[in-house]
Prior knowledge:
Mean pLDDT of chain A: 80
Radius of gyration of chain A: 22 Å
Order of helices and strands of chain A: HHHEEHHHHHHH
Number of helices of chain A: 10
CATH superfamily of the largest domain in chain A: GntR ligand-binding domain-like
CATH class of the largest domain in chain A: Mainly Alpha
Strand content of chain A: under 5%
Number of strands of chain A: 2
Low-confidence stretches of chain A: 1-12
Largest interface: A-B, 52 and 50 residues
Oligomer: homodimer
Helix content of chain A: 55-70%
Shape of chain A: elongated
Distance between the termini of chain A: 23 Å
Number of domains of chain A: 2
Structural class of chain A: mainly alpha
CATH architecture of the largest domain in chain A: Up-down Bundle
Amino acid sequence: MTIQDDTPNDANGNRAADNVVRALSESIYSGELPVGAPIPSEREIVEKFQISRTVAREAVSILSSKGLIDARPRYRPVVRQPDLDAALGVMGGLVQHMLSRPGGVKQLFDTRIFVETGLVRAAATDATKDDISNLRAALEANGECLDDSNRFFETDVAFHGALYMIPGNPVFPAIHRSFSDWLGGQWGMMPRKPDRNRRNHDAHQAIFKAILSRDPDEAEAELVSHLQDAWAQVADTFDGV
Amino acid sequence: MTIQDDTPNDANGNRAADNVVRALSESIYSGELPVGAPIPSEREIVEKFQISRTVAREAVSILSSKGLIDARPRYRPVVRQPDLDAALGVMGGLVQHMLSRPGGVKQLFDTRIFVETGLVRAAATDATKDDISNLRAALEANGECLDDSNRFFETDVAFHGALYMIPGNPVFPAIHRSFSDWLGGQWGMMPRKPDRNRRNHDAHQAIFKAILSRDPDEAEAELVSHLQDAWAQVADTFDGV
DNA sequence: TGCTCTTTTTGGTATGACTAAAAACAAAAT
DNA sequence: ATTTTGTTTTTAGTCATACCAAAAAGAGCA
């Protein structure tokens, strides 16, 4: 199985747009085109690179798909801040792919367990007072809507999201939002009952307690138990996927 | 001929190509267009959806950027297997973004430490005999080129790569390849000396030993120590980035 | 200064044409 | 009959032009 052939997109014969893409990319990375600034209009690009508007449009399209610019329809594309949102969009594509593979849903969920395992361990050892109070607030908010499944779902996501904030690394919030988007779509429409809410909230409390007592092993155990239980609740929905 | 009854875009902000993209996406996800099959030619798309070739091309371009199809220049685009390669391309984009942020390199490296921490812990608890022998082979290959820095770098990457294989989840090899691509570009051209190779190899051995003795805490400690040391070796190269 | 109203610019789309490469086909040679 | 070679058709890539509608910019007025 050859897994070596092409990197991002270009393998062999360069498209005419590739040169334009490279030049504009450098302008962006070098800061010549600062964040938020509109990129040259398509007609200016035509003029500058001596290519047709077709190619100019394709170049803009590629820049957009790479996340370097923000192109709303009918607006001048602007240089995008390479931040969480960009990463989010990219991760969203990954999630989409995972969901379309056989077993992809399970693999994606396992990945989530893997990530959050590391997060709760890190939380147990490194969480600051602020982190703790954020977690506590999220937990309490979660406990206050055991009877409102929609709000419970939101606060559930928020509680897990608080874990992703702890390392202070913007990669993690981006990952969380990708997972959340997926969950919001696939999970949100699932039948949820108050007793399940209570069970999940209890699990959240156990995780929080373990973090509070600075016990990474316990936190990990509770987290894994919680997520495996959550998976079991919906596994049959994704049978064979 | 003036076209009067066209549907430019349905009030919202949707491009005309979006409908085509949606329809083709469904054909792909439903299996109507199986993996490896060529998608309809641009002119067939024009015919089918009653749109101009411009729009058809844009739709194909979007599908390509989403990774649903594999579009080499001048070849008929084929439905892409939504697998590691797709994920790789996506992750590559994420890495690109991280590298262009202030502090992004460090954050990316921290993410790597986070991931590999989880991996060695999992290895220490779950590794099978096969996993162990793979690790051992990678370690030995690594130890045999202490004096050949290029080959040492390759086997170094391979050793870490063996860790990413252990969970049996294709997400991890994809992540590893993304990191490796980055390392191959940024790291590979760094001055490397035999004494550093030895130090890194010793660290690899320590990690392997901890995995062998089924001690996740020790494995984590050795891994973190190893990677932090590796970071220190090159941190000044990325000062302020 | 603040507001409307026009003018210009710009992105989105349509159409037609041309080129080089790939694919499909046919014919010839073994 | 099978392989090789040559020819035709199809197709992606590109270019040029044109039109429309929306956005941005400017002009005019209050």
